[in-house]
Write a structure and sequence with these properties.
The complex is a heterodimer.
Chain A: H1 4-9, H2 19-36, H3 38-65, H4 74-95, H5 101-107, H6 109-115, H7 120-127, H8 134-151, H9 157-185, H10 193-206, H11 215-224, H12 232-239, H13 255-276
Helix pairs in contact in A: 2-7, 3-4, 3-8, 4-8, 4-9, 9-10, 9-12, 9-13
Chain B: H1 2-17, H2 21-48, H3 58-75, H4 82-89, H5 92-97, H6 102-132, H7 143-166, H8 176-189, H9 201-208, H10 212-215, H11 217-223, H12 229-260
Classes of the chains: A mainly alpha, B mainly alpha.
């Protein structure tokens, strides 16, 4: 025991520190650190909140010009917006940092992650966990509450289940897309904007009434990148509306199935990506 | 020759940007996907609104979307914090010590960047959009040279605003939050998400009280032929007025900020 600091970082020295505990400790430390700079946190949180507001303004402006957008009125479209946004914001909060893989590769920090006894994905998540991203979820939840108060849907078991479960399956689906994008980024470091097309594209498509999407997009953002499943289709079930072409209403119940397929796709993409990574001797 | 220095900086940045080939292809792809998403939403609103909203029919809506997707990279609708980062790290000191004006040198480089992005990213997107969906082109031949001038002014106004916002870094350690907030507001009010003409009246008033439509909506209006002849000249005149005013304002702030600057170590 010549060097006391060496003990801390070896696995043997802390056998009782399970992966979950380590994860919790790291997240807690990030949150504590961010809350220390109060003013900074407030402006960043406000920024995330305003992002939600800005995205909602689009729905509001569109429906200022037409009574119905893809068959939905303002309140119904706002329900779709809110459900999709809660899901996307939660996914972004947890795994949005995976976007930073190209920076980690360029800076060589990825190598040090790979040598540590914790899964790479968990380390990326904890390395830059940003509580401020919650601001967007808070805004979306606010919209959801207002919409529900004004819309007063029949509180059947089905509606209650869909309102609670949809953002959770949605978050899983969007998180899957983030991780899949991360895996692909190992192959195309300079071309990460490709993945924006289906990560942020799905985020944008998800908050629109799916019926407005032109046919190829409607199919792609349902059966490949299941964006419409994260809000529009469950909302149709809640509102008792029929689905447009290619999108039967019953797909609104298939959140778990799409979450599973996206999760499997993400796991596969991530594993391939990490295996492909060879490093540059950093 | 002083002007030569800036021209060299501009062409250096033009060439630097051209090395990221895969990024350019990726950008074109993503902008095209988003183009189709935006067209979907806007078409649905035009159809629901009885075939025309705010003076946009389907063909004009398509032109608006493709021109917007083509101009977003040159005008730069994203987070830009180059100056703020250098103020924070202290590297700005060596920039200020150079025998060249800081703001003018960044401006020259931004024009070089925008030029390359317009040619390699904007033009292909317009070609793709025109082929796949169709564009309504202006009938007046004056729309093209005037449109190019309007785009140049739009890029410059965007730069001066971004530079001005970066100067916040002289007063606070972390300007990032302000820059992000600025970006969101700019994205809406510039007409990047949706055309300013379809905003509710109150939001149009807010937008036109800001320089944002002059960076993005104005070039689209002039190039698409939505405003022609005298109206087009008036649009470009308003852009010139914004650019001049903002240049004076940022200059004053820059001089004050530089006086405040205190860097430790070195």
């Amino acid at each position: 025991m010549a060097d006391p600091t060496a003990r801390v970082i070896t696995r043997e020295a802390a056998p009782e520190l399970s992966g979950w505990t380590a994860f919790r400790l790291l997240i807690a430390s990030r949150v504590r650190a961010q809350l220390t700079y109060r003013a900074n946190f407030v402006i960043n949180f406000a920024g995330a909140f305003v992002l939600g507001l800005v995205e909602f303004s689009e729905i509001y402006i569109l429906l200022h010009n037409t009574p119905l957008l893809g068959g939905l009125d303002l309140l119904q479209a706002a329900l779709v917006f809110a459900l999709a946004n809660v899901g996307f914001a939660l996914a972004d909060l947890v795994v949005g940092q995976v976007d930073a893989i190209p920076q980690h590769v360029r800076m060589g920090t990825l190598e040090s992650f790979l040598t540590r006894p914790m899964p790479l994905l968990l380390q990326l998540v904890t390395a830059d966990f940003q509580l401020r991203r919650l601001g967007r979820a808070v805004f979306a939840l606010l919209v959801l509450v207002v919409v529900l108060v004004l819309l007063r849907p029949e509180p059947t078991a089905a509606t209650v289940y869909l309102l609670i479960a949809t953002p959770l399956w949605g978050a899983t689906i969007y998180a899957g897309l983030f991780v899949l994008a991360g895996g692909i980024q190992f192959f195309i470091i300079e071309g990460t904007e490709f993945t924006n097309a289906f990560v942020y594209g799905a985020g944008y498509a998800g908050q629109l009434p799916g019926s407005v999407l032109i046919a190829p997009l409607r199919v792609a953002f349902t059966f490949v990148f299941p964006a419409t499943v994260t809000a529009y289709l469950p909302a149709l079930v809640i509102l008792g509306l029929p689905g447009p072409g290619f999108l039967p209403q019953w797909l609104g119940w298939c959140g778990p199935l799409f979450a599973l397929t996206t999760g499997l796709l993400a796991a596969l993409g991530w594993r391939l990506g990490v295996r492909h990574y060879t490093g540059a001797g950093g | 020759m002083t002007v030569r220095r800036y021209l060299l900086l501009m062409s250096a940045e033009f060439r630097r940007q051209s090395t990221y080939r895969l990024a350019l292809v990726a950008g074109i792809f993503t902008n095209t996907v988003f183009g189709f998403l935006r067209i979907s939403a806007l078409f649905a609103a035009v159809r629901g609104g009885g075939g025309s909203i705010g003076g946009y029919d389907l063909a004009q809506a398509a032109s608006y979307v493709w021109l917007g997707q083509a101009f977003m990279a040159p005008v730069y609708m994203f987070l830009w914090q180059d100056v703020a980062v250098r103020v924070r790290s202290g590297e700005i000191v060596s920039d200020l010590a150079r025998p060249i004006d800081l703001q003018a040198s960044y401006w020259a480089r931004d024009l070089g960047r925008a030029g390359l992005q317009f040619l390699t990213r904007g033009v292909p997107i317009l070609a793709l959009g025109g082929l796949l969906v169709g564009l309504s082109l202006p009938t007046s031949p004056w729309s093209y040279p005037l449109g190019l001038l309007s785009l140049l002014l739009g890029i410059s106004i965007s730069f001066v605003c971004r530079f001005g916002m970066n100067l916040i870094a002289f007063w606070t350690v972390d300007a990032r939050g302000f820059l992000i907030l600025y970006g969101f507001v700019m994205n809406v009010l510039s007409g990047f998400y949706l055309p300013v003409a379809i905003f509710p009246d109150w939001l149009q008033v807010v937008a036109h009280a800001s320089p944002f439509p002059a960076m993005f909506q104005s070039p689209i209006d002039v190039v698409s032929g939505r405003v022609v002849d005298l109206a087009a000249l008036r649009t470009v005149g308003i852009q010139l007025a914004w650019l001049t005013g903002l240049l004076v304002l940022t200059r004053v702030v820059f001089v004050r900020g530089r006086r405040r600057l205190e860097v430790q170590g070195g």
